[in-house]
Amino acid sequence: MVSKLYFGIISASLSARCDALFAASLGRITVFPGDDAYDESRNTFYSQGNHNLELNCNVQPTTIKKVSQVIKILGSSSDLTNWDIGVRSGGHSDWNNNAVYRGVSIDLSKFNQVELTTYSGIPWKQAIEWTGRSAITDVVARIRPATHWGDVITYLEPYGVSVTGGRSGHVGVGGLLVAGGASYNIQQWRLSCDNVVNYEVVLANGNVVQANRFVNGDLFKVLKGGGNNLGIVTRFDMRTFTVPPQGAYGGLAFSPFSSIDANIDSGPPGHQFLVYRYDGPKGGYGLMNMMVSTDGKNNSSNFADFGSKIPLSIVQSISDAGGSYYHSATLSIQPSEAMLQKSAEILQTLVDAAQKAGSTATFNFVHQPLPKMLASVNPGGNILGLDQTLRTNQVLFEARATTPAADGAAKNAIMDSLLLKAVEELRQFSASQPNHSTYVYMNYASPTQNVLESYGASNVAYLRRVAGKYDPTGFFQTRVPGGWKIGRF
Ligand SMILES: Cc1cc2nc3c(=O)[nH]c(=O)nc-3n(C[C@H](O)[C@H](O)[C@H](O)COP(=O)(O)OP(=O)(O)OC[C@H]3O[C@@H](n4cnc5c(N)ncnc54)[C@H](O)[C@@H]3O)c2cc1C
């Protein structure tokens, strides 16, 4: 759609880059403030902060050729004025690493398809038989980056297969996979990124390349955790595994905070999440256990508390479209009673401090498995450095605060600082105990946490070398500032 405003209000000096896209016949995929498609795109960011960002224009490529053209045009700019580029897939990030202020947003939302093929690319349309145990298949899921995980899992289910995707249906594919990815199948089939067998990537010079074990192997490795330092991924090919025909089963069990000792001591067998919640003055404190059985055993004793069993595709299709402000920070902590007790204590101190500061925030302290086998099954296969930091089983800890859309910058800044203080206290406690891990998971981290440094010096050096090889002009370091950048330290 041609912009209503382009020929009117927006001056060439404010949007020289957008002018260049227009001049190159990309006007049909470039939208401006005032266009319906511009508002639709902005409103689908998860974080309220990004709903408010004002862009010069938003370009929504429909083909890989167009992504390449866009990158070539923006990359060849000699315009030295202060403008930036944001790259977004699902837009589900908690903060503005996927957006820009007064710049150009490359919005991949039209890249939202999934198909099953053989490894040689022949479309696959048959259901694969369940033999009683989940097994890797010979078919791959070719997934475009802005597909939501709920749609991916729902598409795959009739074929009897699945992938290591995100657990909330609305989360996007692109951001989760370039960072790592924790799924329901993490204990069996590892991190989500370890299941990507091929990437299709548009590089800084606009060239489209494949990266896999055989071609561009260095790029293949660093895309597994390297974030948006390397290029724009336009397709992820993931290996698939069989799932039982009756689906995986799972659900949530809620209990009062007073039952915390029982939850920490034993917990329901097989649970994957233990969440401490504070739901505001009315909801108060509570505990939530998420339990999932991925092997089709719907009579598992895990589910004794549930009246009915829900197939996982339904659980994943539950959308969380966001619209508030989110504050998050993460750690790897030891799976000990002392750590879990300390985490509960710190949550209560944090809630008290937030209330004193006049905040109406709600909080989740999420504890989920980070098994040590992630380090050994694929040594050197990704850039995360888990062989150095994950020598024992750990808990992936995430502290989250949600503040209302009406909260202004000052209140949000206070919340950021309170949350970081709380997480730092827990980190110090963890560091004082045996088997402390320094790994920081990119997708749960605060923008101020040292994610790339946590991969270890040799991985940082390798990432820097590979980023320099595939992006010698530093386009993704300087023009795409969102996220953790290897060029920043
Ligand atoms: C409710 C909720 C549930 C979640 N559940 C999980 C979960 O189960 N497991 C888990 O691991 N994480 C989970 N997350 C975190 C989630 O992985 C991140 O928010 C992730 O970034 C979302 O992906 P996206 O495509 O929506 O990212 P976006 O917000 O679009 O992008 C995030 C970052 O990735 C970069 N990026 C995006 N697409 C590309 C691409 N194609 N090429 C290069 N760079 C790209 C962007 O530039 C940006 O820096 C959850 C988050 C929320 C809010």
TrEMBL record:
SUPFAM superfamilies: FAD-binding/transporter-associated domain-like. The lineage of its organism: Eukaryota, Fungi, Dikarya, Ascomycota, Pezizomycotina. This is FAD-binding domain-containing protein. Residues 48-243 form the FAD-binding PCMH-type domain. Keywords: FAD, Flavoprotein, Oxidoreductase. One of its GO terms (molecular function) is FAD binding. PANTHER family: BINDING OXIDOREDUCTASE, PUTATIVE (AFU_ORTHOLOGUE AFUA_1G17690)-RELATED (PTHR42973), FAD-BINDING PCMH-TYPE DOMAIN-CONTAINING PROTEIN-RELATED (PTHR42973:SF53). Belongs to the oxygen-dependent FAD-linked oxidoreductase family. The keyword tRNA processing does not apply.
